[in-house]
Write a structure and sequence with these properties.
This protein is of the alpha+beta class and 358 residues long. 17% of the residues lie in helices and 31% in strands. The protein has an eight-stranded antiparallel beta sheet. It starts with 14 loop residues before the first helix and ends in a 7-residue tail after the last strand.
Length: 358
């Protein structure tokens, strides 16, 4: 019987440095400019800055160097309980048993790290949770600010891509008009398990602080965030979402050629006629409306009540525990009659608004 490979033991000397590098990982890259590929080890701190996000955490080492961060992380992760780290002129030497690696370093002056501003307000982990929830509807590659950012404001976090809006409550005091974070920051913050204790902000940057004195800072969007409240505050007559609704969407989604779900008479279907696609029978839903099925599925686990026909059949308004949201409908309009043409069945034109009318 083949022996299992021996697992590397945690090295008391290298484990803190390895842990620090894992903390910096959201701001590190294998490729790019020096500040994106290298971290700074100085004065008992490990720091990384990728041009947008800065991460910093304390380390118990006297190394003063600027190593290739991913190479150092990779090397330390291969070491066992007997590891020697030696700082040379332009490299950091790693030796652990029969394994060794030389990590290239650059001049530390090539990376300029600004110190964080003092903590201004206490906050807790509920902020991270709210940002992570609403961050699902935006993308860091979106061309528009609003679709690539998240607004952290007094009591809640909000995000929208122009078709869908999420709002999640965190209950923390944030001075108005709030802070507009890039999606990349929200993604990085969601990967940090450390306990949050505070926040500070200037006109162009914001920092969040952790219990162990680590911190994360980001550049901010300075454009004015749109007024989403006049959409979210729209009058709604919400009812409980029928049991099995989201499971029904999962059942039929693979047959949706155009990515849409049509609400029929006690059924959800992928096409506007019964003779095509998939159908799932379900009680308690209105008929004659249409949504993008992928957007609609995003409310799973968040919304328990909905008004699928809010604002005269223009949108759906959704509610859950410390959550509310909005989704634009795909409007279905009858095609005008054309003289001398005899239609063979229902002729429909589907349109979806380009944007929410903020």
């Amino acid at each position: 019987m083949a022996k299992k490979p021996r697992a590397n033991k945690a090295n008391p000397a290298t484990a803190p440095l390895l842990s620090a590098l894992k903390f910096l990982e959201p701001a590190m890259s294998d490729e790019g400019q020096v500040n994106q590929t290298h971290c700074l080890l100085t004065n008992g701190w490990a720091v990384a800055f990728n041009g947008v996000i800065t991460l910093a955490t304390k380390i118990d080492t006297d190394i003063q160097a600027c190593p290739n961060a991913m190479k150092l992380l990779n090397a330390l992760s291969k070491c066992d309980d007997k590891t020697q780290i030696t700082q040379l002129a332009n490299t950091i030497s790693i030796k652990s048993g029969r394994y060794s690696a030389s990590i290239p370093c650059v001049d530390p002056e090539l990376i300029v790290i600004e110190p964080p501003t003092p903590m201004m307000l206490p906050i807790d982990d509920s902020v991270r949770e709210a940002l992570a929830i609403v961050g699902e509807v935006v993308s860091d590659t979106a061309p528009r600010m609003v679709a690539a950012s998240v607004l952290l404001r007094n009591g809640s976090a909000v995000a929208t891509d122009g078709t869908i809006i999420f709002e999640a409550w965190h209950g923390q005091y944030i001075p108005e008009p709030g802070v507009v974070f890039p999606k990349a920051f929200v993604t990085a913050l969601s990967k940090i398990p450390k306990k949050i204790v505070g926040i500070s902000a200037t006109a162009t940057t914001a920092s969040i602080y952790f219990e162990d004195q680590s911190w994360i800072r980001t550049q901010l969007y300075t454009e004015q965030y749109p007024n989403v409240d006049r959409i979210l505050n729209e009058q709604a007559n919400a009812i409980p979402i029928p049991e099995g609704f989201f499971e029904a969407l999962e059942k039929i989604e693979g047959q949706a050629d155009d990515g849409r779900v049509y609400f029929g008479n006690l059924k959800l279907q992928t096409h506007n006629i019964d003779e095509a696609g998939a159908i799932y029978e379900i009680d308690g839903i209105p008929s004659g409306i249409c949504y993008d099925i992928d957007y609609l599925r995003m409310f799973k686990g968040l919304a328990t009540q909905a008004d699928f026909q809010a604002k005269n059949n223009q949108m759906g308004i959704f509610y859950g525990d410390r959550f509310r949201g909005m989704l634009m409908q795909i409007l279905i309009q009858k095609t005008p009659e054309v003289r001398d043409i005899q239609p063979t069945g229902p002729q429909l034109v589907q349109t979806i608004p380009d944007d929410i009318p903020f």
